[in-house]
Write a structure and sequence with these properties.
alpha/beta, seven-stranded mixed beta sheet, Rossmann fold, globular, 316 residues, three-stranded antiparallel beta sheet
Length: 316
């Protein structure tokens, strides 16, 4: 088999072959890997496992390789280099960045997060086509800003901020800083928290290190799309759906947009196409959730707290 590849260009396959058959191995073209039948394989050492495609194709991990996806019946594929996971652009209440590696690997080239928040799952696979839906206009405007902003503009933001209203520029820039002045909140704050003022962990709050990290990462999400829409208006196309709504009960009361008909949400989830991953906390009853894992939650007045996470997963 002969093939040609360029970074970000079409990978042309110059020999006909059948794909999607059980046990089909990946094909390596230089530094590219083509996985058959929608199989997706990881080149990262921290994901040393195989993953089967929806039609039985299989592929194994290879160090310093490139991940690509070949739809059934195709003779060419859009090939994109594998990007290391990104760190959070802002710290959002209930974010899944820390635990995202524990959730199933995405089986489809498109990842949809209908409750975007901090997009913790998508940040682990930034090279994918990512669609974010967010009802909260503050979060929507922030993601719109991050997707388009120039690196130099991020670096020009002040490193020391006593009050975000003193920062000139777009409102989204003030929101970005506000999320870093108080970590793990559901809306941006105006002034630094006690922890931020203490100076004990300077690289965990707004400052030069955070600015440089965000500036370095924004080119990796230029192809992402964000829409200021409620979850039910998301396009129902075959994708990997990572659904992390405000949790049922008291835990979800911190969000600005938290009024949800969970029965309707459950029916909507059941009607989606592709790989569906729905997150909740133990006790939720709007889907047949299964125990998933216990994670560290935002510390409360009594010290460190934990959350018993549950998961409903389906492939359709």
């Amino acid at each position: 088999m002969v093939c040609a590849a360029e970074d970000g260009k079409i990978l042309s396959v110059h020999k006909k072959f059948s794909i999607g058959e059980p046990g089909t191995a990946p094909i390596q073209c230089g530094k590219w890997i083509v996985c058959m039948g929608w199989s997706v394989c990881s080149a990262r050492q921290d994901r040393s496992r195989s993953s089967a495609g929806r039609d039985g194709g299989a592929c194994s991990t290879r160090d310093s390789a490139i991940v690509s996806v070949l739809p059934i019946g195709s003779t060419s594929v859009y090939a994109t280099p594998l990007i290391d996971r990104l760190r959070p652009f802002f710290c959002y209440f209930g974010g899944k960045w820390r635990s995202a590696r524990r959730y199933p690997f995405p089986q489809y080239p498109t990842i949809v997060e209908p409750f975007a928040g901090g997009a913790g799952y998508a940040l682990h696979y930034p090279e994918r086509r990512v669609e974010l839906y967010e009802a909260d206009p503050i979060i929507f405007e922030l993601w719109s800003y991050l997707i388009k902003v120039k690196q130099s503009e991020i670096l020009r933001l002040p490193s020391v901020v006593e009050h975000v209203d003193d920062v000139s520029g777009p409102e989204a820039a003030r929101s970005l800083i506000g999320f870093w002045l108080n970590k793990g909140v559901a809306e941006p704050k105006k002034t630094p928290s006690v922890w931020a003022r203490s100076g004990e962990r300077p690289n965990s709050f707004w400052g030069p290190a955070i600015k440089e990290r965000i500036a370095a990462q924004v080119p990796s999400i230029r192809h992402w799309v964000v829409k200021n829409r409620s979850y039910e208006l998301a396009r129902n196309v075959r994708s990997t759906w990572f659904i992390d709504p405000p949790y049922q009960g008291e835990c979800g009361s911190s969000y600005r947009y938290r009024s949800i008909d969970y029965g309707a949400l459950g029916e909507w989830c059941r009607g989606l196409q592709g790989q569906i991953l729905v997150c909740e906390q133990a006790g939720a009853d709007w889907l047949p959730f299964q125990p998933f894992r216990t994670t560290k939650a935002t510390p409360g007045s009594r010290g460190r707290s934990y959350s018993r996470e549950v998961l409903w997963a389906a492939t359709r």
